[in-house]
Predict the structure of Negative regulator for alginate biosynthesis MucB.
Amino acid sequence: MRVFRSCATVFVPLLLAAVAPSVVALEATPDNDRFDCRLLTTEPTPQTARDWYELNLWAGHCYRYDAHAVRIGFDGVRTLVISHEVNDGVERGRARFLDGPPEVFERRSRIGRLGWAEGGSAPTIPAGIAAKISSHYRLSLAGEERIANRRAYRLDISPLDSFRYGKRLWLDAETGLTLKQSLLDETGRAVETFQLTVLERPRLHQGEVSIDAPREAPGDAWHIGWLPAGFSPQPVETHSGRHGSDVTHRLFSDGLSTFSLFVAPLGEIEPLAPGLHRLGVSHAVVRHRDLDGTPCQVVVMGEMPPRVLLRVADGLSWAAEDS
């Protein structure tokens, strides 16, 4: 089950951060390598759903805070503490569950990019993600509520097709941080909810946050035959060398929904049972495929409709077959 453990690590929602007319002062050019968080204090209050979502993404990078939270999901209710810090431009997030199996997840990161470099540059996520998801989701404000004893605006993000799930966010009126979020399936039913119960000492980082440098896409021996509209490969590359195995991981996203693809030679890993598996709110499709004479295990996993993951897995082919 090593591949599933790797997948779980990718998809565990630290939820340390949940960016109209675009907020011009907050735009970051592809050549920038840092963003000054103090610019957030110069912006007017957002007026549209898209403005609020853009602010939410910037706030998730720029605020330092501690919080208590609950997660309501397939395994019941679990409580946790989370924190987000910025040191020398690098973000550090930490989530620790207080009940159930002892689990601690940490993440060190910079502001990411929407894709691999093309022509030497790739746009940064906060500058382009709001426009990108507007092509595949409907963003709308749904009134004001009180969450964690703070004033919040509800933001509904509804998919425009059946290839992805929707979300509902409650954003802090003062900072733009996510106070609550729900993942919604194809029927609009909440399948998982995460909510802060206490937000402690949110303070804007008085400095800059680093932005990832553009990276060239790696060459893969296999080819993705089909992706839902709007999904593209992300600049995340991992390999597992444990016990001599060679598991290649690729990440795909439309700016909101995400799924992972894992490919590994069957002779170098502990094989999983082929088929569709349910892992909490995620689904995983396992296929054993022959890629250019090499028996491989293909795993496609994400918080998405199962039929989408099945189609992606079954569309994988050896690159030489398409040339």
Notes: The helical segments are 2-11, 49-62, 125-133, 306-314. The two ends are 34 Å apart (CA to CA).
